[in-house]
Design a protein that fits this description.
The protein is α+β, with helices and mostly antiparallel strands. Helix content is 33%, strand content 19%. Strand 3 and strand 4 (125-131) form a beta hairpin. The radius of gyration is 18 Å and the shape is globular.
Length: 132
């Protein structure tokens, strides 16, 4: 197996490993960073390369933090109360990954989004890296 194969295997089996501890420590600093930050190197080079990233001029990786949690609709304030209000158990139309890609595209209007991948999550946030 090559180096990238070992990296992808480590990310698949990261429970209770040193990689898990490393990323958990890194996430502490990521919480203090801006919601969208440009990176010098991808956190997961194997995954970034499989999605089209090359380490050359013109390719950019951005880490995007998106808040987790289900979407809530506003409760009707006037008129009669509908039997099924449709306020709770409301499902988003877009995945958090797609929201992250759109935010990165808005932040860097001169770049086009190639793809994105999951990096880490905690109780409130989910981090994706967007390859542009």
């Amino acid at each position: 197996m090559g180096a990238y194969k070992y990296m992808s295997e480590a990310w698949k089996k990261r429970r209770n490993t040193t990689l898990s501890q490393y990323v958990r420590q890194a996430a502490i600093s990521w919480r203090r960073d801006k919601a969208i930050s440009r990176l010098q190197f991808p956190t997961r080079p194997d995954r970034a390369r499989s999605l089209g990233y090359r380490r050359k001029q013109g390719f950019v990786v951005a880490r995007v933090r998106v808040r987790k949690g289900g979407a809530r609709k506003k409760r009707p304030s006037s008129g009669r109360r509908a039997k099924g209000l449709g306020v709770t158990k409301f499902v988003r139309g877009k995945s958090l990954k797609q929201i992250a890609e759109e935010r990165a595209a808005k932040k860097f209007p001169n770049l086009s989004v190639l793809n994105s991948y999951y990096v880490w999550e905690d109780g409130t946030s989910k981090w994706f890296e967007v390859v542009m």
